[in-house]
UniProtKB/TrEMBL annotation:
Keywords: DNA-binding. It comes from the Bacteria. This is Helix-turn-helix transcriptional regulator. Transmembrane segments: none annotated. SUPFAM superfamilies: lambda repressor-like DNA-binding domains, RmlC-like cupins. PROSITE patterns: HTH_CROC1. Pfam families: Cupin_2 (PF07883), HTH_3 (PF01381). Residues 16-70 form the HTH cro/C1-type domain. It comes from Kitasatospora saccharophila. The keyword Transcription does not apply.
Length: 192
């Protein structure tokens, strides 16, 4: 076993124990949920028993997590750098999440488009909350003003665009899988 594999082995064992303790479960409770004996689970947590893939899958389910999350190694760089789109007055920080959704923190500096033809429509749903400042959501023919801590949810098949009012604003947006495709960077004009 390599040193890295040994580190991962120890990390997974610590996670199993930490998740169990965080749930307030005894060894007996988690063992029952995972279909293992209490002594087997104890030996897994203490490194006295080999970690088997089938047991890890079962333990991940019992701990209400995924196998990927259970064995995920720490990222080398925890700092997320934004991508800047000066043309549209936005700055985005992608946030890792479920493969079916995308979470983006975005700084918006420009106003929304005054021409409805510049709004986009695509399949999916979007949810957003204003973290700071005032955002203007153009949704079809409606102009919706959102201040700090206000949120909106809407189907993205409706033409939409987002802008700032009275200075920059920061928005946290969550897109489902279909809406994410509509928000991927492309070389053409984009407003949302």
């Amino acid at each position: 076993m390599t040193e890295d594999a040994g580190d991962l082995d120890g990390l997974v064992r610590k996670r199993i124990r930490a998740l169990r303790v965080a749930q307030g479960w005894s060894l007996d409770e988690l063992a029952a949920r995972a279909g293992l004996s209490q002594s087997s689970l104890s030996r897994i947590e203490n490194g006295q028993r080999r970690l088997a893939l089938d047991q890890l899958v079962t333990l991940a389910k019992a701990l209400d997590t995924t196998l990927d999350q259970l064995v995920e190694t720490a990222a080398e760089d925890v700092v997320i750098s934004p991508t800047v789109d000066a043309r549209h007055g936005t700055m985005r920080w992608p946030v890792k999440g479920d493969p079916g959704i995308s979470v983006v923190r975005q700084r918006v500096t420009g106003p929304p488009p005054d021409n409805p033809a510049r709004m986009r429509a695509h399949p999916g749903r979007e949810w957003l909350v204003v973290l700071s400042g005032t955002a203007v959501l153009m949704l079809g023919h409606r102009r919706i003003r959102l201040t700090t801590h206000q949120a909106a949810e809407f189907p993205t098949m409706m033409p939409h665009a987002l802008g700032a009012e009275g200075g920059p604003c920061e928005v946290l947006g969550i897109f489902d899988r279909d809406a994410r495709r509509g928000h991927l960077p492309d070389p053409g004009p984009r407003d949302c």
